[in-house]
Design goal:
Shape: extended
Helix content: 40-55%
Strand order of the largest sheet: 6-14-11-7-10-9-8
Length: 359
């Protein structure tokens, strides 16, 4: 594409030619001849083409500036992460805090790759965090200026406590990669850890029960249950109609692939399937009663969940710790990175969930 200056210069020449053509006819007190009319139409069309080309060139120039700025920012961030990784390796850090840049990239990738984590409420908090649960949708009270809020406002609430649960993983990276291409080592560390951490958090979102080393609570344990004789159209309709409208707005269905296959076979009385494919965010998405369906290996029962309102993920402000193991893998030519992250998941609002129990 030509530069904006060259396009601008040509537009100026075309504009001047159009003015001269018009001025000649006005001076001689006449209209355009057939040749002049043809020339005027050509100049007008050329001006329109140049205007479009000029606007495109300007937009391309702006995009290029933005891309260069983003690339510089990413390069600066990558360089910082490389220095942090080299520092950890050189000092043989033990229980050192995970560098901020690496921690941010890990959290970013975890949320990008998970349909559940991406939507749930995420808070940074050190230590125990207590949250008052709403077991049913509540309204604010209308009061006079001097009237006090009665204690009954908290009568049907209970608290759930989120703690610092440890999630650990060991990742091996070759010494030659760290020495020769630290950026590749950083990328590998971030990708592997975010993938492993994401799977664990996805699992705990549904299957956490507070026992042993598990996180506090998941949807299958603390979600509101709806018991039916079998999986059928009426049972699924009951799940939708039983939930408050305020929670339905951003709700999604979650189920395993096997349950999804059962739902695909369900039909209305007129023979129409209850589940169909629709385009959501430029991608084909299964839809059930107007709400998107997400297939998850951990949703062992059909769940209807408004993740932003139902689930809370607590993450430690320092995220976690990293320990370098040099001697343990020295014969393999590798360094071991033992990483511990701290956080917890709990159902903070059961009213925003429905779980189908089959009797």
């Amino acid at each position: 594409m030509r530069s904006t200056k060259r396009i601008y210069d040509e537009r100026y020449e075309v504009s001047r030619a159009m003015k001269q053509l018009s001025q000649r006819a006005l001076t001689e007190h006449r209209g355009f001849t057939e040749a002049e009319d043809k020339q005027a139409k050509f100049l007008k069309q050329r001006m329109e083409e140049l205007t479009v080309e000029y606007n495109l060139a300007k937009a391309e120039s702006r995009r290029g500036a933005i891309v260069v700025k983003e690339e510089r920012g990413n390069k600066h961030m990558i360089n910082d992460n490389e220095l942090e990784l080299r520092k950890i390796v050189d000092t043989g850090a033990s229980d050192d805090v995970i560098p901020v840049g690496i921690a941010k990239e890990i959290i970013k990738k975890v949320t990008e790759n998970s349909n559940v984590i991406d939507e749930m409420n995420i808070v940074q908090y050190q230590g125990e965090l207590k949250i008052a649960r709403e077991n049913e949708a509540q309204e604010a009270l209308l009061l006079s200026e001097t009237e006090e809020i009665p204690d009954t406002e908290l009568a049907n609430r209970e608290t759930v406590t989120l703690r610092d649960k440890r999630v650990g993983s060991l990742i091996k990276i070759s010494k030659s990669t760290i020495d020769n291409c630290p950026s590749l080592a950083v990328e590998h560390l971030i990708n592997v850890l975010s993938r492993r951490l994401g799977r664990t958090l996805d699992k705990m979102s549904f299957k956490a029960d507070g026992l042993n080393n598990n996180m506090t609570s998941g949807i299958l344990k603390d979600g509101q249950k709806l018991t039916e004789d079998e999986i059928n159209v009426d049972a699924l309709i009951s799940m939708v109609t039983d939930m408050e409208e305020v929670y339905l707005q951003k709700s999604k269905w979650y189920m395993t692939r096997e349950l999804y296959q059962q739902v695909c076979k369900l039909k209305f009385e007129d023979g129409r399937p209850v589940l169909f494919m629709d385009m959501r965010n430029d991608r084909p998405t299964p839809v059930l009663f107007g709400l998107p369906v997400v297939i998850s290996e951990y949703a062992e029962k059909i769940c209807l969940v408004n993740a932003p309102m139902a689930l809370t993920l607590k993450v430690s402000p320092e995220f976690g710790q990293i320990t370098i193991l040099k001697e343990k893998f020295i014969t393999e030519g590798c360094y071991g990175f033992m990483i511990s992250a701290y956080g917890d998941i709990a159902v903070s609002n059961p009213a925003a969930t429905r779980v189908l129990e089959v009797a």
